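hiii, so i know i said id send this last week but things got crazy w the move. better late than never?? heres the sequnce for the chain we talked about at the cafe, plus the structure i predicted for it. fair warning i was half asleep when i ran it
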Amino acid sequence: MDIETLYEALRKVQEAKGYYFNKDKDRTFELLENLIINKDRYGYMACPCRLASGDRESDKDIICPCVYREPDVEEYGSCYCNLYVSQEWNDEKIPHDYVPERRPPEKVRF
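okay and structure toks below
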């Protein structure tokens, strides 16, 4: 799958849920490219901003869109990666604060 196809497919589904891609298309396409790389590498689209273990069960919380996206966007207007954002975030009606990592330390493997 190419980046543009992934962008359009996800955009339609996620915008209907109230999640928008970051208006910075360079950033968005870079993240989408890394999702495709992770899909090729692991067989699933692990979050490009976190270290995946390669074990789908262990990584199920960080398969994009990750389980942390909803609380991140609700609280900060953006997910951890800044891939998915609220309309207010894109419209610069809310500050672009740093989104802290919500993934528990015991899930992070090196």
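btw The two ends are 29 Å apart (CA to CA). thought thatd interest u
miss u guys!!
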